[in-house]
Amino acid sequence: MSDNQFLWSSEKDGFNHIYWYDKTGKLVRQITKGNWEVTDFYGLDEKSKTVFYESVENGAINRDVYRVGLDGKNKKRLSTKAGTNKATFSPNYKYYINIFSNVNQPASYTLNDSNSGKELQSIESNEELLAIVKPYNLPSKEFMSIKTAQNNELNAWMIKPVNFDASKKYPVLIYQYSGPGSQEVKNDWNSTNDYWFKMLAQEGYIVVCVDGRGTGYKGEAFKKVTYKQLGKFEVEDQIEAAKVLGTYSYIDASRIGIFGWSFGGFMSSNCILKGNDVFKMAIAVAPVTNWRFYDSVYTERYMQTPQENPSGYDDNSPINFAKQLKGKYLLIHGSADDNVHVQNTMQMMEALIQADKQFDSQIYPDKNHGIYGGKTRLQLYTKMTNFIKENL
Fold this sequence. Notes:
Elements: E1 6-10, E2 17-21, E3 27-30, E4 38-45, E5 50-55, E6 64-69, E7 76-77, E8 84-89, E9 95-102, E10 105-113, E11 119-124, H1 127-133, E12 141-147, E13 153-159, E14 170-175, H2 192-202, E15 206-211, H3 220-224, H4 233-246, E16 251-261, H5 263-274, E17 281-285, H6 296-303, H7 310-314, E18 328-334, H8 343-354, E19 360-364, H9 376-391
C-alpha cells in the first residue's frame, strides 16, 4: 500500500486468510474469515479500497473469484459458474479476464467487469475441443466424499465405465499423489492422466482418486497433521478409503490396486506393503523410498533432519517394509532423474531382493523425473496398462 501499510495472508486462525497491518506491523483488521481458504490474492485497488482474491468458499474442489472491501464488508462473488475460476486483472482493476473450467468444460476465457462480475465478452470458449472429444463417449468424473472408520471426511472422485451396471462387481484402481498441501480432487478440466483413466474405465475398471490428510485447502489442521511423519496418516487414509470402497456393492474388494508417481509412488509403495491385505497390486513411478535420499530443502521443511527425527524417516520408508510384500508390484524409474534420484528405486530393488520378494521393474535409460521423449510415454503407459490388465 502507498503509505507502507500492507496486506498479509496467514493460517493463524486455522485457515488461510487475508490480514491488514499498519506500517508498524500492528494488525488493523482480518479482512476475510471463515472455515475456508483464500487460494490466491489478486490485488488491492487503493482507490476504491477493494481487495480481489480467489477462494474455496464454495467447496475445496472449486475456486471462485471475489471482491471485498478493506473493511471486510460488501463481499461479492464475481464468478458465477461452479468449477475452477481464475482471474487476471487490468492494472486499474476495472476489468479482469476470467479463466473457467470444470470436469465437463475445457478452459474458457471471458472479459468481465470487476465491480459486478458481469461477462462483457467471450474470448475463447473451446467449443472446438468439446466437439473433438465428444465422439469418444468418455465417462465423466463423479465427486464424492469418503468417510473413513476414523471419521475423516476425504474428498474423492470416481470414474465409472460408460456402460456401468450396478449389479456387477468391478475392479478398482486408486490414483493419488498425497503430497503436502497438494490437491488432485478438483473440479477442473481433464489432465493428461485423466484420458488414460477414462480409457481404463472403458476397459472395465473403476478409477478413484482420494485426497487424504496432508493435502491442501481444507484448513491448517488437516494439512499439517503429517508434520514430521510423511507417509503415516496419508497411507492410513488410502488404506482406509480402499476398505470403504470395498464395501460398495458394485466393487470387488479383492481387486483393488493403487498407482502413483513421485510422492504418489512413495505412497503406492507404502500402501502395497502396509496395506498388503487390502491392495492386490501397485505401480510406483519414480518413488521416494527413504526421505534420507531426497533434497533437504523439501524434506527438512516437513520432517526436520534425520538426526532430530529418525523414527519419522524410518517408520514410513518403503525400503524398511519390503518383507511385507504380498501383491504384484511394478517399480519404474528414469536413470537420469534429477528430482527423485534413481538410488531410491535401486535401494528398493535391493531390499525386495534380499527379502526374497518377486516384483516387476523398468528403468528408463537417461530419462528424468518426467520420463518422456520419443516413444517413451507410449511405451510406459502401455506397460502400466498391461500390468493392470494382467494383475487386477
